[in-house]
Amino acid sequence: MAKVQTRSISRSIQNGRLGSANGLRKRPGPGGQVGLKIIQKGKKKFFEKVNPATLDILGVYPLCEAAEVDHALDAARHGFERWSKLSLRERSKHLKRFRKQLVKDMNEIVDTICQECGKTEMDAMIEVMVVCEHMKYVEQKGPHFLRDEKRSTGIFVIKGAYVSFHPKGVVGVISPWNYPLVLSMGPITQALMAGNSVVLKPSEVTPKTSMKIAEIAYRAGIPQDVLQVITGDGSTGALLVESPKTDMICFTGSTATGRKIGEVCGRLLKPVILELGGKAPMLVFDDANLKRAVSGALWGGLSNSGQTCITIDRVFVHESIFDKFIELATVELAHIRQGLRHEMPSIGSMTFPRQIEIVGDQVTDAIQRGARIISGGKKNTSYAGHFYEPTIVTNHTPDFRIMREETFGPVINVLPFRTEEEAVKLANDTVYGLNAYVWTRDKKRAKRVARQIRSGNLNINDVYVNYFMSDLPFGGVKSSGIGRVYAIEGLRAFADQQSVCYDRLGLNKDPYWFPYTPAKQGLIYRATKLLFG
Ligand code: NAD
């Protein structure tokens, strides 16, 4: 496919003009950057990106405004015209090359994620691996899921029917900062497989990873106008949502922003997927494998510094094993290190500086209202960057702020319960419904409890694995979102569906066409009685 000239950022990536600080410089002052630092250069605005663990300045990125967004969307339309005409097999081959390039350039992307997010190398690697698994699934299953699908014609035996799938056009992908690779690449891969072109607006907190995604995509031969990145803040994202030039929005981020985007898309009747916040409950029954449950709770609640939408936030433990659970968790947590990447820690820094204040406020509120901090409970000041100590809170009640609001930090709340009924009630006592976790050796109880929990996804005796399985659709209920990504449901969400019927016999007239006669009417009466009575 021929490349078109676009003035969008994708060209600048290739020219190496963006995101490169000339050597790493330290950002002065304790605490570093909290809000966006905007730099005006002539008529254009840029924003600065800082490594949250070390406070090194990583680069400056354009704050794209209306003209740039519009330009990218025009280019994306151009790209769409050719990309959508490729066969499913050809698109699949492109995606395979993209995946292989990603693996080839794995070290680059891992370095970028670690620098930009303050993550541990292991957490960054897990992101890469999960993306590859999803990409492989889409490239292998996509052609099958998106080809014409024969459907039953019911009583109309002389007819044929099928559903066909068509690209929507230009998809705006808006992603958050907590997993800048997987939460951009998931929607991108599915949108491209379905024949759309994509304009990605990453979080202003993590522009660098998205630039790297585009760089790797172009190296793999994905045409520049088929996948573009526009950097900027919420105002840039809003332009993408409002523009008549986007045919669909796939948004991952907070419930507050999702609600705004949902309102706009509702007004414009623009298809939208909303992947929003969570406050996952974990129920640990008295017959659970306690050691595994404790380790699972710590990894599920504290990895990636708890900045995961499906993070384990509220742990409810049967009263008979509550003290033992706390004891084991305290011992295991004492051996979990937090630190900088080269120290091989299990927990890194926070990614979004403002998040450390949100976590701190919730913990302080809990302490003031009488909660007990088993471990952590404050910033880790051994480092210049934004570290919050892994924290276990107990001795509070479900009405505390920390139990109701999304924390998005390395904090686990642990409370006791008495009965199964109470456990289910506690789990459901939230506006969110993304992930949930049930721990018991009793399979019947596990299924019974799972059915009563209102969540989009649920793990039994396990943590996070639903997200690693590409054949499972992912998404939320209640305030955790609308729509699904991944699996057949997610992939098809990026396509328009067309129901097609056709006549197989070629009679001059079907029996129920004009003219209506008593004989035809009688036939319909008799047939209805015979077939459905
Ligand atoms: P956010 O809502 O602040 O921002 C997400 C993205 O939306 C960013 O790119 C931002 O620039 C953009 N944006 C902000 N205002 C906008 C507007 N009015 N119109 C269009 N775009 C706008 O979220 P965040 O802080 O980046 O991410 C953390 C949140 O994301 C948490 O609530 C977390 O639970 C959620 N999340 C959900 C999932 C999921 O799959 N359900 C996954 C990861 C994170």
Structural write-up:
The chain is an alpha/beta fold and 533 residues long. It folds into 2 domains: 65-275, Aldehyde Dehydrogenase, Chain A, domain 1 (3-Layer(aba) Sandwich); 280-471, Aldehyde Dehydrogenase, Chain A, domain 2 (3-Layer(aba) Sandwich). The protein is built from 18 helices and 20 strands. The strands form 4 sheets. The chain has a 7-stranded mixed beta sheet with strand order 14-15-16-13-12-17-18, with helices on both faces. The protein is globular, with a radius of gyration of 26 Å.
Q: Could you tell me the radius of gyration in angstroms?
A: 26 Å
Uncertain runs? 1-7, 13-34
How many helices? The count is: 18
Please estimate the helix content. Answer: 40-55%
Question: What oligomerization state is this entry in?
Answer: single chain
**Integer average pLDDT:** 94
CATH architecture assignment name of the largest domain: 3-Layer(aba) Sandwich
CATH structural class of the largest domain = Alpha Beta
Q: How many structural domains are formed by the residues?
A: 2
Class of secondary structure makeup: alpha/beta
Distance between the termini: 59 Å
| Adjacency order of strands in the biggest sheet | 14-15-16-13-12-17-18
Biggest sheet record: 7 strands, mixed
Name the CATH homologous superfamily of the largest domain: Aldehyde Dehydrogenase, Chain A, domain 1
What proportion of the residues form beta strands (DSSP E)? Answer: 15-25%
